[in-house]
Design a protein that fits this description.
The chain is mostly beta strands. It contains five helices and 32 strands. The protein starts with a strand and ends in a 17-residue tail after the last strand.
Length: about 525
């Protein structure tokens, strides 16, 4: 098999795309059967899962062969209706019709919306290169036959599309992406399952969700929708973000009791799932250690056994930072007492116990524990940047050296809400040289990230509803607004992160109305 590499700029609409084109030869000995040729095409394309389109389906044999595993969905297209009928009959007889399907098209326009297809195999039909690039996902590939030679056309990843790797965007706690494509919805990209979640007044079916490199990963209760009293079926799922194809599933045998009342359960659950590049980090159980999983295939790469009992985890530049609870967790003994709901009882009886945790730093490549230390750590406050780790110990902000775990500084007292219930959590955000903290006591403080020097204190408005409150840095300003109660103004204030000076204020564009405008933090 021989290769020739070329780089070519292709104009798609008004945008020039630098597409990579590679040529290679496949001899009859290389691909003696459709299955072997499909294996080679998939191998050379680098596509391990998603939506595959075969242009020129023939009798369906080669189309079916392209579904080499359960991570792939395949559709064959042909401009010849008789050929499609023959292929459908063959696939039906083989019992493979469904995950593999065939249809007619006009020979020019592919019947898909933009950015939907991971791999197009052009074999016996041809369409314009711009049309291939239109339907391909970013990093999608077209394999184009010309006799015994195949060319590989790769659609580049746009710089405007960002990943969302952690619950609060990344390891620094600022829930603001750098994405320039996201905006008001314009059309439906895909519709996945299930159509309904399990219940509104008990724990939400969706427990955590992140995305990286065109895939989304989430922890969901796939139990029966007939009754919330039936057992849960917690599962980690991976989907292609552009077309919704399920890439793999991983069962989670034990998770938070699904009869926990209202909302998404204890807020720390959303901090147990991280996706960075081609790796997923997750606790596959309520008391389980962190497992590192191949994002494309679902295969386990490593289990960090020393992290059993992890409540929160962060990943930054090859470092895994885990907050580990070696004792009992606050909600271990929860069981519902009232069928109509336990919101009041949970608010009274369940809260952060303020007992020490262990913070562990681990090299994700070797699995080596670099350092660990025991300390009190408030929920949701662990953050990590390229030089330091930070958290709130219940009284003040603490800063550690990320390489050694040595304490670099502690701040002056930074107040918090007296009781941190399980649906709440303080906010700690690292933005450039500033550490921002809001603990729910209606103030926020800013500290210098290198020295811990107090920079300013300002009011912090109440937001959210039975959830963590908002503290966002966007367009270089620190934002919050009172949005919880009917009488709240909804006026957003933007503060200078270095001085705390109010730079911008603006009211909502509509009249505020009972009651809270949402049941979760802003992102």
């Amino acid at each position: 098999m021989s290769w020739i590499h070329r780089s070519r700029r292709v104009r798609l609409g008004t945008v020039a795309i630098a597409a990579t084109i590679c040529l290679f030869n496949v001899s009859p000995a290389d691909a003696a059967t459709p299955a072997e040729e499909a294996r080679l095409l998939l191998e050379q394309s680098g596509i391990t899962g998603g939506f595959v389109v075969h242009l020129g389906c023939g009798n369906g044999e080669a189309t079916a062969a392209l579904r080499a595993n359960d991570r792939l969905q395949v559709q064959g297209l042909s401009s010849d209706a008789a050929q499609v009928a023959e292929a459908r009959e063959r696939l039906t007889e083989q019992g493979s019709y469904g995950p593999v399907a065939v249809d007619t098209f006009d020979g020019q326009t592919l019947p898909y919306i933009d950015n939907l297809v991971n791999l197009v195999v052009v074999d016996g039909e041809s369409v314009a290169r711009d049309e291939l690039l239109r339907v391909l996902t970013p990093n999608g590939v077209a394999m184009i036959r010309d006799g015994d030679q195949w060319s590989k056309l790769t659609k580049p990843w746009p710089e405007e599309i960002d990943d969302w790797t952690h619950y609060l965007y990344d390891s620094k706690g600022n829930a603001v992406a750098h994405d320039q494509r996201a905006g008001p919805p314009r059309h439906l990209q895909w519709l996945g399952s299930p159509r309904w979640s399990r219940h509104h007044d008990r724990m939400a079916s969706m427990s955590a969700l992140v995305s990286a490199q065109g895939r989304i990963f989430y922890i969901m209760d796939e139990g029966s929708r007939v009754s919330i009293q039936l057992p849960p079926r917690w599962t980690l799922l991976a989907r292609d973000a552009f077309n919704g194809t399920i890439l793999w599933r991983q069962p989670i045998p034990e998770w938070q009791n699904h009869l926990w009342p209202l909302k998404s359960g204890p807020t720390q659950l959303a901090r147990r799932l991280v996706a960075v590049d081609d790796r997923v980090f997750v606790t596959l159980g309520f008391h389980a250690p962190v497992t590192m999983i191949d994002a494309g295939t679902g295969e386990t790469r490593r289990v960090f056994e020393a992290t059993a009992g992890t409540e929160e985890l962060l990943v930054n530049n090859g470092l895994l930072l885990a907050q580990v609870n070696r004792g009992a967790m606050e909600t271990d003994d929860y069981a519902p007492a009232l069928n109509v709901g336990d919101q009041g009882r949970v608010a009274r009886e369940y809260a952060w116990n303020q007992k020490p945790r262990e913070i562990m730093a681990i090299d994700i490549e070797t699995g080596e524990t670099l350092w660990s230390r025991e300390t009190t750590m408030a929920p949701l406050t662990m953050t990590l940047d390229e030089q330091r780790a930070y958290f709130h110990d219940g009284q003040k902000v603490v800063c550690l050296d990320r390489k050694t775990g040595d304490q670099l500084w502690t701040s002056e007292p930074a107040a918090r809400r007296q009781t941190i219930t399980m649906n709440f959590g303080p906010k700690l955000v690292v933005y450039k040289s500033v550490v921002l903290f809001a603990g729910g006591d209606r103030t926020m403080k800013a500290f210098d990230s290198a020295t811990g020097k107090h920079l300013w204190t300002a009011p912090h408005a109440q937001s959210g509803y039975q959830s963590p409150e908002d503290l966002l840095v966007a367009n270089g300003l620190v934002w919050s607004a009172p949005t919880t109660r009917t009488q709240d103004s909804g006026i957003y204030s933007g503060l200078d992160p270095l001085t705390g000076e109010v730079k911008v204020e603006f009211p909502p564009a509509v009249d505020t109305y009972w009651f809270h405008h949402r049941c979760y933090i802003a992102k």
